[in-house]
Design goal:
Layout: H1 2-23, H2 31-39, H3 45-65, H4 69-86, H5 99-117, H6 122-134, H7 141-164
Helix pairs in contact: 1-3, 2-3, 3-4, 4-5, 5-7, 6-7
Length: 166
Amino acid sequence: MIALLLFIILVYYSYLSMIYVLFGIPVSISQTFYLLQAKYEGTGFIFTWWLLFLALLVEILVLALNISLISNIIMTIATICLTITAFTPFYHSPEEKDIHPIAAAIAIVFSIIWTVLLGYWLIPLLVICGTAFMARNSKSMTFYIENSAFISLFTALYLYILGSHV
């Protein structure tokens, strides 16, 4: 289980590192689709497949842990919303401008709810508050909040796996 979690973290930060090297810190994770499309014609699909792969890996890990039915349902909702976010990358278009941010917000909220239900309520509180404080004057606040939700999730998964000795 630890190996799968470390692979998930590697997938997550490999993509973000590539984006950082190419473009710096984006306004949001979703903006990376547009950045890739603009600089390298036709490469925005990398964002979609990366986010889809990430959602699938997190869902596999959580279901393999089999914490509880409610836990599985909450994380499934989060990963479904993450998948919807992946498949609606044109968030500036009239067709996707409403569904994309709503799905992304639901994914963030449900992953935080999942972390809290696991008993790790202090993790998202500290990570999100600390991130919001440090990035308060940044135009990339959305990116930092999205990142803090992933960091909270990865940390809770790590602590749970260590505690359960799976």
